[in-house]
Automatic annotation (TrEMBL):
NCBIfam families: YggS family pyridoxal phosphate-dependent enzyme
Pfam families in UniProt: Ala_racemase_N
Protein's recorded name: Pyridoxal phosphate homeostasis protein
Function per UniProt: Pyridoxal 5'-phosphate (PLP)-binding protein, which is involved in PLP homeostasis.
SUPFAM superfamilies tied to this protein: PLP-binding barrel
A single MF term (Gene Ontology): pyridoxal phosphate binding
Lineage: Bacteria, Bacillati, Actinomycetota, Actinomycetes, Bifidobacteriales
InterPro entries, A to Z: Ala_racemase_N, PLP-binding_barrel, PyrdxlP_homeostasis
Amino acid sequence: MSGPKLVAMVAYMEHKNLANTTIGEQRARGIADGVHRVQERIALAEAAAGRQEGSVQLLAATKTRDVGEVMAAINAGIRLIGENRPQEVAAKVEGGLPDLCSQQGLVLGDWACDEDDIPSQQTVGFHVIGQLQSNKINKVIHCVDTIESVDTLELARKLAKRAQLHGVSTGVFLEVNESGEEAKSGCAPEEAEDLAFELAQLEGLRLKGLMTVGAHVDDERIIRTGFAHLRDLRDRILSSRQLGTAECTQLSMGMTQDMEYAIAEGSTEVRVGTAIFGERAFI
Ligand SMILES: *Cc1c(COP(=O)(O)O)cnc(C)c1O
């Protein structure tokens, strides 16, 4: 991470107590309205694309939001959250997010649903969606069920090893830099297929899908081309029938600005922060 960005991150974590659990009634209502508005946008986009209602999951991107704000989103119906930074995962877990979920009859992290018959309505999936440095794996491996931002074989191997040590099976998405923008993480599109086949074979990991961040441009055609390319890649991986690829069904693409385009191109999960919680006061 670059110098100024790191300073800004430290600054906001000092400014804002992310473990705070109290929230004003008006703020909680604002967040609930945000959740419902985004759910409506998703339903409209599904219908416009001729897709089945409910085929796109909504992940709330909770960076810079405190435990009280995250719980307001969960109470409004959010069943999947994503954090960018390991420090924030730790702050919110220590701030009591798992306990607050369990008070609502919900399990935070959905590792268990296949094996233990917990209906998915009763779990809140917990993902990492930001760049993960390998020295931070231990901070998150026992808290989150899925890492969406895996973009090298080296990171995947380290994750696999840690997951096995902890006796968990960690879900992973391969992140692909479809736009080629330099500031973005993600592997190069040309490398993605081979990399996916390698990840799929690692014991301790389950390859669940692919993730990308849309091009940072105004041109609908350019943004959609990147999303369409990710969908084609997913289809090729699935139809390869290679070892460990059968679960690689998900496409995590689309954010506040471009979720309609992503849904039109086959997204199964949109990651939304601003349209739920409002503008971020910090990066
Ligand atoms: C912040 C973030 C989002 C959500 O962005 P919004 O524009 O606030 O909806 C989605 N994905 C990633 C990787 C993010 O960092």
